[in-house]
Amino acid sequence: MQFFDDSLLPENQQPLVIQVAPYGPQWDASDSDDIAVSMDDQVQKAVDCWNAGATVLHVHVREEDGKGSKHLSKFNEMLARLREAVPKMILQVGGSISFAPEDDGQAAKWMTDDTRHMLADLNPRPDQVTIAINTNQMNVMELMTEADVAGTSLTNPALQAAYTDMIVPSNPSWHVEHLKRLTASGIQPHFMLGNVSQLETVERLIRRGVYMGPLILNYVAIGGGFAGLNPADMMEFVRRTPDGAVLTLETLNRHIYPMNTMAIAMGMHVRVGIEDTLFGPTGERMTSVQQIEMMVHIARELNRDVASGDEAHRIYKIGETYRSTEETLARIGFAPNRAQGQRGVPMRVAA
Fold it and tell me: From the record, what ranges are coiled-coil (predicted)?
């Protein structure tokens, strides 16, 4: 991303899109009063987040017993209810489905490749499904402190061990096929990237014609195989992200407040919610709605507008499709592919 002399002035920035992850599948239902269990309560949670200022909803679903659902029929039911309850909210289904262990000591793992491919068949279809690129460690315990898990199920050593060893499976044969299925179904992939090497892989997929469409992504700074908390690493990722991409910051625990403040100031977008933290900036419990309200407050203090539902759809380029590799490169802001025999850096020539 390029920064001009006036890029940090709020009147030159896109309105802030707030992404919220209010369902927290890694938590036991007893871990927080803010965890919705019944279908009615899960839908109401989305309404409350919308009313607070969030315009992108990261969707997971719980069964009636409080455990994370692995049944696509429950996702279909949830999506249908959400389309009625929050019609202008961008619905983003978590590509992991539910990675939570079903029993103590069981592995925390994502569903099978075939099951995850079925997300392309959700009906009604969501606006987005998240996708990781390249198989990666996802040790969510690495940056957790005793205070972060106090009073929750994650004090259980068996669960800690399960989440410590969790891996995100996304080998090339899987993510190439998944991108094809999502785009064929009219679902926008939302890339969840934890380092520059993963961004480079996405660029190669685009240059080779595997993916044609908008580049909407999260910089995932959760440690344990993904990016850590050093702002210098975040700035390098920002620098390497092309100007036509849409970049959201995602981190965890109390770090979401200082890092999201930096993101808001720089014109990026933010993610909050109890999937990322149960706590506020001083260690007090904070609901997803309260976290959204804090992001709205910070944006207003910086005089940056908060996106409406229509504005979020425009910024996220929902429904946009590109017809060629060249169009995709141009709209995202990458240099064109090298023509045979061409030397030097390929440049776009003004018409």
Answer: none
196-207 vs 325-332: helix axis angle to the nearest 10?
A: 140
pLDDT over 70 (residue 75)? yes
Gap between the Cα atoms of 294 and 261, Å rounded: 10
Task: Supply the angle between the helices 256-266 and 231-240 in degrees, to the nearest 10.
Answer: 30
Assess whether pLDDT exceeds 70 at residue 205. Answer: yes
- Torsion, Cα 281 166 216 259, to 10 degrees, reads 20
Q: What is the mean pLDDT of residues 41-59?
A: 98
Residue 260 token pair: 């999201």
- What region does 259 belong to: left with phi over 0, alpha with psi -120 to 50, or beta? alpha
For 269-308, what is each residue's pLDDT tens digit?
A: 999 999 999 999 999 999 999 999 999 999 999 999 999 9
**Which candidate, 182, 135, 190, places its Cα nearest to that of 21?**
190
Count of Cβ atoms closer than 10 Å to residue 169 Cβ: 18
Report the alpha-carbon distance of residue 219 to residue 234 in Å, rounded: 8
Sign of dihedral through CA atoms 24, 27, 32, 38? Answer: positive
Residue 20: strand, helix, or coil:
strand
In this prediction, residue 109 carries a pLDDT of: 58
Query: At residue 230, what is the residue type?
Result: N
When pLDDT is averaged across residues 163-187 and rounded to a whole number, the result is: 95
Is the Cβ–Cβ distance between 115 and 97 less than 8 Å?
yes
Supply the Cα-derived Rg of the chain in whole angstroms: 20
Q: What is the pLDDT of residues 221-236, one digit of tens each?
A: 999 999 999 999 999 9
Nearest to 293 by CA among 86, 18, 45, 52: 52
Determine the average pLDDT of the residues in 308-331: 97
Question: How far is Cα 33 from Cα 36, in angstroms, rounded to an integer?
Answer: 8
Q: Is 328 within 8 Å of 322 (Cβ atoms)?
A: yes
Q: How many Å apart are CA 328 and CA 351, to the nearest integer?
A: 18
Q: Which residues of 243-262 are buried (b: 16+ CB within 10 A; e: fewer)?
A: ebbbbbbbbbbbbbbebbbe
